[in-house]
Amino acid sequence: MSWQEIFGNAARLEHLKKILAEGKFPHAVIFSGAAGIGKRKIAETCAKVLLCENPSGGEACGVCESCKLIRAGSHPDFKIVEPEETKSAPNIKIGQIREMQAETALQPNLSNRRVVIIDGAELMNTPAANCLLKTLEEPTGQTTFILVTANRAGLLMTVRSRCITVNFDKLSAEQIKNALENRGVGSGRAETISLIADGSFGRALQLESSGGYEIRESALNFLERLCTNKIDTEEIFQQGAQYSDGSRESFGDFVTYIQKILRDIYLLDAEKLYNPDLKSRLNKIKIPETNLLAMFDEGTKIQRRLKSNANLRLMAESYFFRLRLALNN
What we know:
Elements: H1 10-21, E1 28-32, H2 39-51, H3 65-72, E2 78-81, H4 94-104, E3 114-119, H5 126-137, E4 143-149, H6 157-161, E5 164-167, H7 173-182, H8 187-196, H9 201-210, H10 212-227, H11 233-244, H12 248-266, H13 279-282, H14 289-305, H15 312-328
Parallel strand pairs: 1-4, 1-5, 2-3, 3-4
Helix pairs in contact: 1-2, 4-5, 7-8, 10-12, 11-15, 12-14, 14-15
């Protein structure tokens, strides 16, 4: 957790270092921006500086007891609150906020303050958010709150109004490509992944590790064959069976790539495509506008259904049939 490990958003990082050096870091701040761009790492780096015994110029010393404990993940005055898995969807519950409040009501153990990071803050349920609001309105002790979110609009307006917001931009494809190459990914593959990662290094790492590169190719092949009437009912059932043996995340990625490819076909002459490296192949896929929008709508519906407990195989088969129907209506 150091500034040197973070890339992108240089101006905002310099601003954060400046207010840390001047002792003007807000008591409650929202770090907002797309998922996977490094907001959590930036928040942890700020926490390290805030808790450091000998900070200088907005940098932590890295050698004091506080820095060592943060590095070891055992600093008594540093807490991270994260969503918990539930039967429906991950969320942050009121019990987690109350537990945090009980800790922050006490005097710090080692440093002169406490720092709390709430990661995925938009996933606080309403009771949890209202509970946090009371603390933000009437803070007890010297506690700094950093709310990390990929969806600022998902936070209660009353919570947003009590915090200073720092917005972070998506990363450039070149920055992601360089970072991937530094991790040993081949230049060609790194370039392709950087183009489809949509400005998210976290997404790029997921693509590299989980076969997302191959899933995108599978999605494009499926659309190409669907549009040339080469996918029959039997193959649809086979495709459904294939995804029933995988994960919801894998099928969700497949649908996401279909959506992005359809969007690129619709805006083929736009300057910024999700898949610029596929432009020549996309140009050969001819779908009437009305049908294309209907197919995109089916993808939106299935993305919502993926958040439910519906049977994955039935969802996949239904999606494939509905795509074919939307294409041919």
